[in-house]
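[Q] Does anyone have a clean structure-token version of this?
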Amino acid sequence: MIEKHQAKGMAKWQQNMIEEFIQEEYTLLIDMDIVSENLKNIMNVFLKKIMENLTPFEKQMRDEAMKEMLKDMGIKPDKNTNFDDMTNPSFMKDLEEKMRAEHQKRKEIEKEKEKEIQVKNTDIDFQRLYKKLVKMAHPDLSKDEIDKQTREDLMKQLTTAWENRDYYEIIMLWIQIDPQNTCELEINEANQKNIISQLNAKIIDLEHQDYLIKREYHDTSFYYENFNAPSEKGIDKKIKKYIETLEITTFKTSLLIHEYEKTSSLKKELSKIKKEQEAENFEFNQYMMKSFGSVFD
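[A] Here you go.
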């Protein structure tokens, strides 16, 4: 497709369609982390040529779009930033570092805000319980090295649980440290509500993570969508089926590549796609006009 982009007789709209297709496919490969160095080099050359052929208006539109994108990420471009350098590896490396630093900064700010909310909403009864448990589990009270190691582990767990205001975890540690309840602390209705609220939040978070793993993250959703089965035999069956599908797809793709090596065939396909897009846009516009018409009526 990159070769055909510069083929003789290609109209501007055809080149734009090819560019869009290439960039969509390349973005997908980057997201899946399967881009070779060779492909990166080819794409750099390709993007450089596109940049060189942009009209002044197209450059202005590109620059505005890039500035807005960076602004959304919290990055303010320098006055001397030249987006023509986007194909330059050092420019992209510098941009990636800025994006990473800004992302880290935002994470730290969010963490601080969460901490402030936690402190503000601290359950006083659990604060008392935490202090009592620290005194009971302190490593200085150890009788031997094994007991000291056990107490140190408990202290680490207690500290983490308190920093996260994880009341359920504090109760679990309470049962372990003070099984006889010498603290003489009772869980009242307000405490129960705090614990239930936290557990419900954890359930929602776990369900969200489960969804992301099965549907969103490329490295895990791929396996769930294609190979998930209750037994090893079922997984093997799905793997064999997937291999067969890959072989058929590879064969069909090779035929398409061979067909699109002819510029005339590629042009016909682009014209077909363009007509389909125009028909979809027409139907959408008709629908919107009818919708607005019924509203005004």
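[Q] Thanks! Anything notable?
[A] Residues 229-278 form one domain.
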